[in-house]
Write the structure tokens for this entry.
Amino acid sequence: MKQPVELSHACRLINHGPTVLVGSAHQGRRNVMAAAWSMPVEFVPPRVAVVIDKRTYTRELVRASGSFTISIPCRATLDATYTVGSVSGRDDAQDGGPDKFERYGIEHFDGPVLGLPLVAGCVAWLECRLIDEPHAEEAYDTCFGEVVSAQADTRVFAGGRWSFRDDNAELHTLHHLGGGNFAWPAKSVQGKVLPAR
Amino acid sequence: MKQPVELSHACRLINHGPTVLVGSAHQGRRNVMAAAWSMPVEFVPPRVAVVIDKRTYTRELVRASGSFTISIPCRATLDATYTVGSVSGRDDAQDGGPDKFERYGIEHFDGPVLGLPLVAGCVAWLECRLIDEPHAEEAYDTCFGEVVSAQADTRVFAGGRWSFRDDNAELHTLHHLGGGNFAWPAKSVQGKVLPAR
């Protein structure tokens, strides 16, 4: 069910504002965190912005490796999403103990281009090369990235478009309202252009 | 039903990734456009980023005035949202004709701090001062702003939190899937922290 997505459609995957999981790895260390704040900034080349707090372990690994991944979770992975957004991976690393993937049994696989960790059970996956923008990172914790691979679960994203239906409800994306409370999109509707007066 | 929102809660209004309407005005000219790409970047002080294409009339007015507004539309204002995202206000302005508000009968009111246009019938409203970041604007069309006023419709946002329920369905926010197709959030659910292994 996991299929490549054309890079020109990659930004559609986060166009509607879902919470995402940011994956990272560097020299044998790896981590995953939840991020409610991300957006596309360009369709072609596909570029995104994601806010990663400078105090996080993820930020350290992203800076060191110059890359990150985005996995888009769904209702079926709600608790894993909340969990990796609630605990720091740095504590695990300092203890020399298991990382978040191991500690919470979060299955993952390697991205096809960069080999970075993507989270299984999600509904879409991006690998990104960090664009070097030290000022935006420092002033706004905003990390810009260029998408180099994109994949999605064809049960809920096909033909370059999300399709949220009653029969795939467990695959609907999560949208963070605050405090661990998430909404998910229900049906969709087509807008119409109003007649000019 | 429109009430002020504490500035420390302002970023909650766009935390879940809704499509927004960007309002602008400068020296008697004004405009409004839809933007699917926005996100918070900081809770305190409340700061946001929104992608505004450099070819748009909105961008010209935002740059000239150093400010913009964000109105958060809902299902009841779906067609107005799609309309102001589909036509350019520059054509109207060059013709000396009515602007988008007049042409499409889009009611609006002045923001309490900056006096900029906010769109009536939406469910939340922010006024923002543009932060001077010419490089991010040029390279990524990303405009950073500091929120200076926030208001929301208490039927759907109260106590610093969105509440999407069956009985306020027309007030649910819009999330752009592409091509004028919008999803809206249905119910919400609380995430739980998984037990460590």
User: Anything to note?
Assistant: Chain B touches chain A through 63 residues (CB under 8 Å). The CA atoms of residues 77 and 121 of chain B lie 7 Å apart. Chain B has a mean pLDDT of 95.
